[in-house]
Amino acid sequence: MKKLSDLQGSFELHNGVQMPYLGLGVYLSKDGEEVINAVKEALNQGYRHIDTAAIYENEEGVGEGIRQSNVPREDVFLVSKVWNTDQGYEATLKAFEASLNRLGTDYLDLYLIHWPKGDLSKDTWRALERLYREKRVRAIGVSNFLKHHLEDLLDTAEIVPMVNQMEFHPYLVQQELMDFCSSHQIQYEAWSPLMQGNIFDLDIMKDMAAKYNKTIAQIVLRWDLQKGVVTIPKSSKKERIKANSELFDFTLSDEDVKLLDSLDKGKRFGPDPDNFDF
């Protein structure tokens, strides 16, 4: 198990950059007051990692939330992603500038390719490599890349992705993909860790929450971290943002980690990286 300390603890990426292992996701948080308040609240509670994307259409609010918080920009690990319609070398460079403008910052801590688009993503990756070399971004990576997508990218990549952000929860562990990423020092990261709310219906989760006197969300998020997976639970509610960060006063037993692993069904609640139409 990687060492876990507190809310501001981090995992080290293969280029030496420290990535806070718990962050706030803002997918479906409305631009304006909702996302501004969520980001400001999270940062003021101690979070240091905010994950957005061009397609979320809330980068302006994320930037404003950072500015309104008590936390300097350089202490925030800020992530965005290039959307599919902006993939390709020149288009990606333009999309990156547009994201920076909306966020009101002059660099990102991590920039990801949002979805694999075959050979087009190789051109996108060349643009990310350029941005990285120019120090416009501190780390680069991918999202929703399965093993064959990664192998294809690595055929021509000069820089190995630092991160792969995947749908990850007890029903979708993808251990083989995790092992492949680990062997290439690609940090694994979870989106949709709570199975889009479906996790709360599982009796096994209710039993485990009672055993540890924690919420079901806290159990799952702690499991992520103990497996060495960065996680970014989304919430715009003050109480939930706080509860999602209270993961450092208990440890799941090895048996319970394995028990959650054993729930794996290969079941997705989001799109399939091999079969999506956007």
UniProtKB/TrEMBL annotation:
Domain NADP-dependent oxidoreductase: 30-264
Keywords for the protein's UniProt record, in alphabetical order: NADP, Oxidoreductase
CDD domains named in the record: AKR_AKR5G1-3 (cd19157)
Site feature Lowers pKa of active site Tyr, where: K81
Active site: Y56
Pfam family, one: Aldo_ket_red
PROSITE patterns noted in UniProt: ALDOKETO_REDUCTASE_1, ALDOKETO_REDUCTASE_2, ALDOKETO_REDUCTASE_3
InterPro entries per record: AKR, AKR5G, Aldo/ket_reductase_CS, NAD(P)_OxRdtase_dom_sf, NADP_OxRdtase_dom
GO molecular function: oxidoreductase activity, acting on the CH-OH group of donors, NAD or NADP as acceptor
Binding site for substrate: H114
Family: Belongs to the aldo/keto reductase family.
Name this polypeptide is given: Oxidoreductase YtbE
